[in-house]
Amino acid sequence: MGHFQYRDRALYCEDVPAADLAARYGTPLYVYSQSTLVDNLKRLQEAFAAAEPIICFSIKSNFNTHIAHLMAQHGAGFDVTSGGELFRALRAGGTGDRIVFAGVAKTDAELNYGLDVGVRLFNVESEAELHRLADIAASRGQTARVALRVNPSLPPKTHVKTDTSVRGTKFGLDIETILDAAREVLGKPGVAIAGLHMHLGSPILDTKPYADGAARGVQVIAELRRQGHPIEYLNMGGGFGISYRKHEELPPSAFAAVILPAVRDSGCKLILEPGRFIAGNAGVLLSRVIYTKDSGGRHFVCQDAGMNDLIRPTLYDAFHRIWPVTPPADVPTWPDDCEAEMPGTRATDVVGPVCETGDFFAKDRYLPELSRDDLLAVFSTGAYGMVMSSNYNSRPRAAEVMVHGREHRLIRRRETYEDLIRCEIEV
Ligand SMILES: *Cc1c(COP(=O)(O)O)cnc(C)c1O
Asked: Which residues is 13 bridged to in the sheet?
């Protein structure tokens, strides 16, 4: 899995034993491989090279400024969804001309912030936002450059909570009404429609939604141009799936094969907004077993990471591969099918310390017998892991470490109890 590999029955991140990182920085601990982050960005850059795309790393997938800085150093721009993400992208070395700004409820303050720093495109998600942005920009004597986000109305593709392009989600303008919205602002000062945007959902392990979305996009672009809007950009969003279970991810070339022809037909510049594809398999969450117990006919492993550190299993029914950092000799170090029963394992519920029945990472997972102090690795947690963490149950947030070759460095320190009350007014 990228640069996470077992050597002599011990998990390594690049050239550093994961157990050494847990001993040095404590658990729960997010560990990232710098080489995997950069490789994943490069795989996309190469697959789409023919279109000279602007690859805007979706900073919501992993917002640590060190990771964003790495992305900027290697040629990425940023997809931001809030003023806070815009702040992070700029702090990390991003520049406005490489930033696109999405979100269904951008406030006046956020629109002004985007205008202040000259974002390349506002991805506008409603008629009301289009007019509001036009008015604000005009009052500043500016013209906001806009990509209209279209909801291409495709069949369901992912979990109901992460599908963004079926009819009836809150995202974008309906494909049936987008042309009317565009016509209304033709020639209106303050706004110039320069692109078409879509983000279909995530994670997508199939090329068909992109083929269908792009085909609809090309038609809409032709209509917009007929109206007189000089469309320059086609933004196909993110959503490229990754391997959570086996080897289910598609190579970027498969997505490129259906997207590049549409880009060529449209004569547009291509923008992409990948997040998960870059960061997902570049991170693991390390945790330590505190207790094991048997109750109600089930076997529980209670470890020190919880739903406040990683909420995907309970929020999306998401699957993460979980395996010991140093597996015993009678089980494989990297079972090809990590859901199958095999000798030396037993059905286990991996749970955390939070006071919620929903605080689990896996149910009925076949794992070797574990005992106190054993370390577990929860794989594919580099995207939508730390960014969705919280202080629920007054648990300080985990630390984050970046590994590069033999080097490792803290990129976010573990929170302390004092941090928990830092923003509260003193009693
Ligand atoms: C979340 C999001 C992305 C990134 O999705 P990934 O699955 O992480 O690639 C891109 N664009 C928009 C508008 C998003 O909301």
From this structure: 4, 16
Please answer whether residues 353 and 271 qualify as being in contact, where contact means their C-beta atoms are separated by less than 8 angstroms: no
Judge if the beta carbon of residue 238 lies within 6 A of ligand 1.
yes
What is the pLDDT at residue 158?
Answer: 81
**Can you give the pTM of this predicted structure?**
0.97
Q: Sign (positive/negative) of CA torsion 375, 376, 382, 387? A: negative
Q: Which residue has the higher pLDDT, 152 or 401?
A: 401
57 lines ligand 1 (CB under 6 A): no
Average per-residue pLDDT for the chain? 96
Distance between CA atoms of 406 and 12, rounded to whole angstroms? 10
Residue 286 parent element (H or E): strand 283-295
Phi-psi region of 193 (alpha: psi -120 to 50; beta: other; left: phi over 0): beta
Instruction: Mark whether 355 is an active-site residue.
Output: yes
Q: Is the pLDDT of residue 114 over 90?
A: yes
The reply to whether omega before 155 is within 30° of 0 (cis) is no
Structural domains of the chain, ranges and CATH numbers in brackets = 4-32+280-425 (2.40.37.10), 34-277 (3.20.20.10)
Amino acid 163: pLDDT: 82
Report how far ligand 1's centroid is from the alpha carbon of 56 (Å): 10
Atom of ligand 1 nearest to the CA of 164: 15
Give me the residue label for tokens 């806070």.
84
Distance 378 CA to ligand 1 centre (A): 22
Ligand 1 site-directed mutation target among 56, 57, 61, most atoms within 8 Å of CB: 61
